[in-house]
Write a structure and sequence with these properties.
alpha+beta, 4 helices, 5 strands
């Protein structure tokens, strides 16, 4: 009887041990599978991340570099165009003022001579303004006395030289003149003037006039 009892106890002990071993093995397998799964997931993530990093930022970086470069180039070109436009506008102003002053000087009607003289003075500055103003009264008297009419027409005008504040402009003008009791000139007289134009604020005025051959 004792032997049978011992045998039964041994059998139960072996069974319990086997169950513990089986449970431990199962837990180890599950843990191993979990670790392997985590490793696989980690490896997949590591494989995916480099692809994302290498594929997305590069086009973005290239695109940004192109945008920055184009913006800088556009700004520089815009500044140059603005500068060129300013220079061209200043040159046009010099020539326009010289042309208009030449017309004012050569277009005098005895019936409106006072207004004609005022137009010349309004477009003049410096020594030319003062000299013309001082001589204007005797000139007005002569024009009224002989009942003179003259009309100037610009043949051509060009910029000889210019700086930021001053320019030399050559103007060719044809002048028709008539006086009371005298036949009108059949052919207009042709004069050439070199006018010095000074910048005055946003405008410009003539500071000197010379007749040249």
């Amino acid at each position: 009887m004792a032997e049978h009892g011992n045998a039964a106890e041994k059998a139960e002990s072996v069974t319990a041990t086997e169950q513990v071993d089986v449970e431990s093995t199962a837990e180890d397998i599950e843990a191993t599978e979990d670790i392997d799964a985590e490793d696989d997931a980690g490896n997949d993530t590591k494989k995916r991340v480099p692809k994302w990093v290498s594929s997305i930022p590069r086009p973005i970086a290239v695109g940004l570099a192109i945008i920055v470069a184009l913006s800088g180039l556009g700004g520089w070109l815009g500044f140059r165009v603005h500068q060129d436009n300013q220079v061209q506008a200043q040159r046009n102003l010099y020539v326009q003022v010289a042309r208009q002053t030449a017309i004012n000087l050569t277009t005098i009607d005895y019936t409106e001579v006072d207004a004609d003289i005022k137009r010349v003075l309004d477009s003049a500055t410096g020594a030319f303004h003062d000299e013309f103003q001082n001589r204007s009264q005797p000139f007005v008297e002569v024009v009224k006395k002989v009942q003179s009419k003259s009309e100037g027409t610009i043949s051509e005008a060009g910029l000889l030289s210019y700086t930021k504040d001053q320019a030399q402009v050559l103007v060719a003008v044809a002048v028709k003149t008539s006086m009371a009791g005298a036949p009108a000139d059949q052919e207009p007289r042709r004069w050439r003037m070199r006018l010095t134009v000074d910048k005055t604020g946003d405008s410009a005025k003539v500071s000197n006039v010379e007749f040249v051959p």
